[in-house]
């Protein structure tokens, strides 16, 4: 998945050797990569991306599960969450190929003609697209799915107390030898320094957390700052005062995708969306002065912190 992973297990006795557990975890992550990576040329997803026809292609149950969740959140957000947005992200230089200048309007319009979740059709026969250039990039949801998959593997081994972190997407379960698991929510700092705003404690329950933000990933083009969260409808950076969102959810796949959706929705719509779908979210907004921040939470957030299920 192009990022780090770490797992901490709080069990007095392991059912199998630690080395065997690591091998099992690595096998789960390798399977996710082989299915959903855009960096592996022969991954299941890349093979689907290369096909040009409009016929439905048979896909694995795992890929179907993730694509179905992505399309659900795309519909909920009216297209502001979109797994076909990859070509627009690349156009602005946030993909593998770096660019020196911002794209012109004609190029953006051309790419918009084949991006948009409405170009995808998921059916009993498989996954189809109605434009040959439409492609899927699951980077906004696959890490979260990977976390859930590792958690399922650990549970199959009889483990109940652990914390999993894949590239900052986290799932906590059980407790740490009788104490709560603790994880901090980072404040945005352009300088790269780290300051924790709050600490989330989880004990004797299951909770996932995903954070998305624009404050570290941006580019400058001749005085114009472009952020990596792209508005799928305009093809341009989603400019807003919303700097970061942290989503708490039962499963990490949903937390991962909803965090991206909320950033794309921006300051005017994100809070309403979180309330409408009863999401537990911590929002960090830019303040009026440089270096100032405003924090707000959805109604569901505080109840989840107190112990309710998300």
UniProtKB/TrEMBL annotation:
Top EC class for this record: transferase
E.C. number(s) listed in UniProt: 2.7.1.180
InterPro entries in UniProt: ApbE (IPR024932), ApbE-like_sf (IPR003374)
Taxonomic superkingdom: Bacteria
Cofactor annotation remark: Magnesium. Can also use manganese.
Catalytic activity: L-threonyl-[protein] + FAD = FMN-L-threonyl-[protein] + AMP + H(+)
Cofactor: Mg(2+); Mn(2+)
Keyword Flavoprotein attributed: yes
Ligand binding (Mg(2+)): 140, 256, 260
Keywords, sorted A to Z: FAD, Flavoprotein, Lipoprotein, Magnesium, Metal-binding, Transferase
Coiled coil: none
Pfam families noted in UniProt: ApbE
Molecular function as annotated in GO: metal ion binding; transferase activity
Similarity annotation: Belongs to the ApbE family.
Protein name per the record: FAD:protein FMN transferase
